[in-house]
Design a protein that fits this description.
The strands form nine sheets. The chain has a nine-stranded antiparallel β-sheet, with no helix packed on it. Strands 29-28-27-24-20-19-18-31-30 form a nine-stranded parallel β-sheet. Strands 1-2-3-4-17-14-13-11 form an eight-stranded antiparallel β-sheet. It has about 900 residues and is an alpha+beta fold. A hairpin with a 6-residue loop joins strand 25 and strand 26. The protein contains 14 helices and 50 strands. The protein binds alpha-D-glucopyranose. Alpha-D-glucopyranose (GLC) binds next to loops.
């Protein structure tokens, strides 16, 4: 009954959003798809088979997972060949090739034919020859073959051929169970799952961090709004991280076909990864720290590009702001209410009948003018571009695409079509370099009008079927000239669309870093774009789900991500919106967005006290921008996520292994959002170390749970002792005025902190125009010493630091800055904060010089390392 009700309300909702015509087209699409799949099955072309295919589709046949009993395995190793980089094992039924790419990275390939063509991959950025050669020891005995690098051993038993990865002490990191097998085109690998093992990753998954005991499908799909547990959704990355008895490892399964990961769901001590086709090729990474695995994974698949700084500000969106007067009104409200905001996004209604790269001139008579006016008020405009191009030969994009053969086709060369927002659409084949070049150029008009960023949607790719659908398997793709069908190209379609967009924007605006937001992607997409977690719901469970989802994306290289803050489908009440805005401050992407036919969701819609609280939190994001930008820079250097699970800092602490409801934001913050209605306090797990309560400066010793107050105006937030947090003054948007002073919030303890700065928008940073400051904080006896080391040739606009030292028990006896006594300081005994200025920071004299100085030394008493001082309110 409920499900019937759901179906009916889905149809009603669909008709309201899409119109009856499109609903009918969509309802018929699955049959059309089945027809073409059957018609062109196995390279044939038979209409009769097509019609029979429709009947077959009605039966909805299910594919069952492969079992070892179904498969052929390599058998025994008969001969071994070793070269500079690789070991090739010729077995009874296949050849296995192990290539040592780095001390902690080995690639495994299986070939039943014995052929190993160069491994083409959309994810991997490096040719084998580009990896420096690594020395490894090779040892062969009657029973086994061993490859030993300076970091790990790969042991292959000969009878049968099975792989085990061990650390140098001989402890198992990961081992084959049945090992690698195949049946027809399908390939699978079975590995053992240790009793204490935890598993993470796989891209965008609407579940908790630790994925042990669950099974997943890897097939990018539009679920048309999702609930916790729905799988698969928009963006899948076949990268699995494991933690077995303290040893962190990674497996990247470089296969774009529809695939499955069973992580102990079918059999509790076995992991299976399987694909519907393609090569069995995976990369094995060893840590033991998971951070080392991430570093290497992002070396292999590419690092996140540094976004423009304004993209780290607050974004406002809805489906859709129109007409122009409404967009201007939203902009005006932000400035009048003094709620900082950098960007307004235009969803599909800005277009003319949902035709990409056009404007609805009735609603937006002069877009360039509007964008310029918004620009004067400090707003950047981001526009949506979908994958489907309306099949209308009178529409210039479609006409060009048809004329130049840019769209995906059926095997007989006819152009494939299916319904999306504008009705029947054609779809550019983004796996073709020629199509990507054309697509990139299509943005010229938008760029000339001043559009600052692009939001690529519906690129799973979606054809609006009854349940959200996609192309038939038989649709052809260029695949960089090698040819492939949709089974192989599906999962990279969105990523290649985002790539075409990013490359286009970079050609059109060579001096600016692009902002491309994509809904769908695959491994390695961080090189081109960021993503958002799309059509969630305005519910408390979904607020909580944001955390493991964004953390998991970060573990898979897609660290610049965030949810529709406030929720997409439904309308949040004031409390839910405020709690979500608080969390949004600490998600890498901070954008409020809601669906069509929902209530307004701007930060002020619920009146007081919500508006004031929302404003304060958005202001906090803006104050923290130099810190946030530095966290992005770290990610771009080493793949360390911006929003991090605690396990990345405390891998040996079992409490962190499945912790879904708190996270680290950059190096210093521990964030514990409120995910329950009416809550005014919550339990927070603080890992080992000393922590300051951000709001009260109370000091806590970690390694335990603490109960913290969380009235609506506060979200539990802690700072790691020993941190220096750089903050800017509040601005209404990035670059509103030059920053004249940088405030350094110092949290006494021993530690190192970083500050990365550059011009925030161009590529000059790649030519050395950046400034990297390393702050070192040390407590020695009764003194606290802050040193800094500066490198790089970028000169920020400020020339002094305001130093705020937290948790100072008594007024200091002496404060010195750069060796000289500081004449003036203020000390507030109530808040226990000490404030003073350090004037004139001497920059390095040349770009190659590193300037070191003892920034300040404070002689006074600081909270002890142990114990818990009285909480006090900060001033
Ligand atoms: C999709 C997107 C959503 C957008 C809508 C209309 O559902 O995920 O963010 O608002 O399409 O373009």
């Amino acid at each position: 009954m409920t499900s019937l009700f759901k179906q009916v309300s889905r149809i009603v909702q669909g008709v309201r959003i899409l119109g009856a015509g499109l609903v009918i087209q969509s309802a018929l699409y699955p049959f059309r798809k089945a027809y073409y799949n059957a018609k062109f099955h196995d390279g044939g072309n038979s209409s009769l088979r097509g019609w029979l295919g429709i009947l077959d589709a009605l039966r909805n046949p299910q594919v069952s997972p492969l079992t070892p009993a179904d498969c052929t395995f390599p058998g025994d190793v008969r001969a071994v060949r070793v070269d500079r980089r690789a070991v090739e094992l010729s077995c009874d039924n296949a050849v296995v090739r192990l290539t040592v790419l780095a001390e902690d990275l080995i690639r495994v390939r299986l070939s039943p034919t014995g052929e190993f063509p160069p491994p083409f991959s959309y994810a991997v950025t490096r040719e084998d020859a580009d990896w420096p050669t690594v020395d490894f020891a090779f040892h062969e005995s009657k029973e086994a073959v061993e490859i030993r690098t300076a970091r790990l051993t790969c042991r292959v038993t000969k009878s049968p051929c099975r792989l085990t990865f061990l650390d140098l002490d001989g402890a198992v990191i990961s081992a084959d169970a049945a090992g690698m097998g195949w049946r027809g085109e399908r390939v699978a690998c079975w590995k053992t799952l240790g009793p204490d093992e935890h598993l993470y990753g796989l891209g965008e998954k609407a579940l908790g961090l630790d994925k042990r005991g669950m099974a997943f499908e890897m097939w990018n799909r539009d679920p048309q709004t999702y609930s916790p547990g729905d799988d698969p959704i928009y963006l899948n990355i076949p990268f699995l991280l494991g933690l077995r008895e303290g040893r962190g490892y990674g497996i990247f399964y470089d296969n774009t076909f529809r695939s499955w990961f069973d992580l102990g769901a079918g059999q509790e001590d076995v992991v299976r990864f399987e694909a519907a086709g393609g090569e069995l090729r995976y990369y094995f990474f060893y840590g033991p720290e998971l951070t080392t695995v991430l570093d290497r994974y992002t070396e292999l698949t590419g690092r996140m590009i540094m976004p423009p700084l304004w993209a780290l500000g607050y974004h406002q969106n809805r489906w859709s702001y129109y007409p122009e007067a409404r967009v201007r009104e939203i902009a005006h409200e932000f400035r009048a209410r003094r709620i900082p905001c950098d960007s307004i996004h235009l969803d599909i209604h800005y277009m003319d009948g949902y035709r990409c790269f056009t404007w609805n001139r009735r609603h937006f008579p002069d877009p360039a003018r509007m964008i310029a006016d918004l620009g004067e008020q400090g707003f950047k405009v981001v526009v949506m571009i979908d994958a489907g191009i309306k099949a209308d030969p009178k529409y210039w994009v479609c006409a060009e695409g048809l004329e130049q053969g840019m769209f995906c086709t059926y095997p007989d060369g006819r152009i494939f079509g299916g319904p999306v927002w504008p009705g029947e659409c054609h779809f550019p084949d983004f796996t073709s370099p020629r199509v990507r070049a054309w697509w990139g150029e299509l943005y010229r008009g938008l760029v000339e009008m001043g559009v600052a960023g692009v939001w690529n949607d519906m690129n799973e790719p979606v054809v609006i079927g009854f349940q959200g659908d996609t192309f038939p398997d038989c649709v052809r793709h260029d695949w960089e000239g090698q040819g492939a069908d949709h089974r192989q190209a599906h999962n990279v379609y969105g990523m290649q669309m985002a790539r075409a967009t990013a490359e286009g924007l970079m050609r059109l605006r060579p001096d600016e870093r692009p902002l491309v937001i994509t809904r769908s992607a695959w491994a390695g997409a961080q090189r081109y774009c960021m993503n958002w977690t799309a059509d969630n719901q305005s519910t408390w469970p979904q607020l909580k789900l944001t955390m493991p989802m964004v953390m998991t994306l970060g573990l898979c290289g897609m660290a610049f991500s965030g949810p529709d803050t406030g929720g997409f489908s439904g309308t949040p009440d004031g409390e839910l919106l405020t709690r979500w805005m608080q969390l949004g401050v600490f998600t890498p992407f901070f954008r409020n967005h809601t669906a069509i036919l929902t209530g307004d969701q701007e930060p002020w819609v619920h009146g007081e006290p919500y508006t004031t609280i929302n404003r304060r939190f958005v202001e906090l994001r803006y104050r923290l921008l130099p810190y946030v930008y530095t966290a992005f820079w770290q990610c771009a250097q080493s793949g360390l996520p911006i929003m991090r699970p605690l396990l990345l800092g405390w891998q040996d602490d079992p409490r962190t292994h499945a912790l879904d409801d708190e996270f680290l934001f950059g190096d210093a913050f521990l964030v514990a959002p409120i995910g329950e209605p009416g809550a005014t306090s919550r339990q927070v797990y603080l890992p080992a170390g000393t922590w300051y309560d951000f709001w009260s400066d109370a000091v806590y010793v970690g390694g335990r749970d603490v109960l913290v107050d969380a009235p609506l105006e506060r979200m539990p937030l802690f700072v790691r002792a020993g941190s220096v947090i750089p903050m800017w003054p509040v601005m209404q948007y990035v670059g509103q005025r030059p920053v004249d002073v940088l405030t350094l919030h110092v949290y006494p303890g021993d530690g190192e902190s970083w500050l990365y700065e550059d011009d925030g928008h161009s590529w000059a940073c790649q030519r050395g125009e950046y400034r990297l400051t390393r702050f070192t904080l040390r407590r020695e006896g009764g003194a606290l010493e802050l040193r800094c080391q500066i490198e790089g040739s970028y000169t920020p606009t400020y020339d002094r630091y305001r130093v705020v030292v937290h948790g100072v028990e008594h007024e200091p006896r002496r404060v010195t800055a750069d060796g000289q006594p500081v004449a003036e300081w203020t000390f507030d005994a109530e808040s226990r904060q000490l404030r003073f200025n350090v004037i004139k920071i001497r920059p390095p004299r040349s770009p190659v010089e590193t300037h070191r100085c003892k920034l300040c030394r404070i002689c006074c008493k600081f909270p002890s390392r142990k114990g818990h001082t009285r909480p006090r309110r900060s001033g």
